[in-house]
Here is the input.
Amino acid sequence: MPVEFTERSLLKYTQKVIELFRNPKNIGEMENPTVTTVEGDPQCGDMFKMYLKIEGDKITDAKFLSFGCAANIATGSMTTEMIKGKTVDDAGKISIKEIADGLGGLPGLKMHCAVLAYKTLKKAIQEYKQGKSGGDQTSSKGS
Amino acid sequence: MKVYLDNGTTTPVAREVLDAMLPYFTERFGHPIFVYSLGQEAADAVERSQAMIARTVNAKSGEITFTSSATEANDLAIRGVAYANRKRGDHVITTKIENPSVLRVCEELEKEGFRVDYLPVDSQGFVGLKELEKTITERTILVSIAHVSDEIGTIEPIEQIGKLLREQKNRIYFHVNAAAAYARVPIDVERMGIDLMSLSAHKIHGPKGVGALYLRENTPIEPISHGYISLFTLKPGTENVPGIVGFGRAAEFAFNGFEKHVWNMRKLRDKLMAGIEERVPHILLHGPRGDKRSPANVNYSFKGVEGESVLLHLDLNGISVATGSACSTRKLEPSHVLTAIGVKPEVAHGAMRFTLSRYNTTEEIDYVLEVVPRVIENLRKISPVKPEEL
Ligand code: FES
Here is the structure.
């Protein structure tokens, strides 16, 4: 049986992750968002909620709530920071790798937390595009 | 303030224990198998530790074998007895809430053709005697149950289980993993009908890397590792003499004033529980209350928050605790113990375990009770999940 070497620690976070965990950016509820999206991570049972304010296809504000681990809170901070000020199309081009790189990397086991933030963003953008003419969009999967 | 409340995971080595160990690294370094005085000095020290530990559980000295950990003791007990009794039977019974060092070994036995039943437990973690009795067959050779759940603190009815097993027509050996029970609840292998029992030094202010297996005289068992036999036929290799000395001293340290230490831990446990219940809404206690709960264990789910985040925030405030959250495990699954007692995954997400030792103080608990409500409140503010809805 081949021996699998395990990571030294589950919590071997970079300084950047810890910093954004201690002082998260853009965390909290948003009043009158253009889009609100909730995604769950079936792997560990977390929930991630994202609010976007979009004016003329430009993301003017982004906020999030997290029912997840430190990596989840840090990736939420990073993702919302990265998309603020971008057009919806540009924000849609951001990759999981860019989010993780922005944090100085994530432990392999915690990559799925970045995936969750990424998936929520993708879903929010999709919902915005689909319902552009219809005003406020709300999705509440899993809440 | 620094407050260590993860004593169920490991404890600091007591000064007294370290002092007892140190000479055995340097001046008294002899190999216990040799007849020259250096060897005999080491062998005597090992014997003293055996006697000390035996006394604390009402066993005989020779019934104690030192191992490298409780994990190894569990492996040796379960596989050793299973192999040695294979002709008589192939059925083993354990529970769903055992430590992985028991569960994983049982899974290995299954691969080798043994049959294993994993008993369910009730919502407080208790094994049902009726359920156990129903599960016993003519082919049952071994039952393995932890005395105290290291996670939720449930004290199992070991004495009644031991009695039930003795009443059976066939001889069924009873193995008890007592790593979380030792020095927290009184243990008497005679009264409780225990045939094999695993212990660990580092959970009672002894060193890491030392465990012990109590093995009742005349219990058929096969060694599971082979090599040079020094003092213990079941555990080949040179003994970890300094570690064994430390274990013996730690046992003495724990049982000198045992009742007082337990009383103290229970008092702090109850203070912590009352404080949490008074100050934090939307919580769920895991495990029983009162005398059937380990005096050292407190475990609550704080609904709507995630355990790893709580753990790290408490750490930033100098407090060390453990969590049963899926996020903190390699497999990203909630604790199997919480799942077995019927806790929903969303609720298990915020499960925090606080485990006490004799060193904890009232001031420390006051501090924890000041920090915990604040951390929970702050994390609830940033959670998309409403605690009252879970
Ligand atoms: S949110 Fe569960 S592991 Fe990160």
